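quick one before i forget lol
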Amino acid sequence: MTHPITRLLAAALVGAGIAVAGLAISHGLERFRLADRTVTVKGLAEKEVESDFAIWRLAFRRGGGSFGDVQKALSTDRDAVLAFLKARGFKDDEIEIRPLAVQDLLAREYGGGQQQLRFQGTGQVNVKSARVGDVQAAALAVDPLIQAGVQISSDGGGNPEFQLRGFNDVKAPLLSEATRNAREQAEKFAAEAGATLGPLKIANQGVISISGGDGMDHDNGGSRVKRLRVVSTFVYEMR
């Protein structure tokens, strides 16, 4: 028969275990190990930032029965695109002009048969600028080009691609926030468990993920606002 004192001691140990487990769950702790008196916590940090660079690939195309006519039309379209961009305030160092390309469809290995428009040509002008807002506004104001007969193509991308080139400038503060968040959780857990938080044993800063501010799980470049998120893991000693 089990002695009453033994039963009371067992019950007390079970109760203490349940209390510690309850603390761990309430704090979202990754792991609490009583054997080596360590606690593992995760620190979360999120931040929305504006893109600081934009690339807009403005592509256009033409088709016709004469090589010279298609080339001439593409040249005229390119001049119209450049005039449009200059009118929007873009400078020469923000504009990249790609060579015109004209293709003879009958000259292709698989181009047999009658071709209504034997020649097809494309041109492209790229805008690369840190003036993100101006690039976005220009991409939404291409109606005059279309009205002038420029056949804008989606082959080059169509919409601007927004980038975050100053990533390192926001990386350090984000990691610091995740570290503070983790330590606050660990300190609160230690206080409620009647212990003292010891030194940091292991730190894993994790990977910063970038997603679109429009709710996309990954950054496809289409969102001007980027959401940065990092989950860091830390192991502290408990005293």
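fyi The mean pLDDT is 84.
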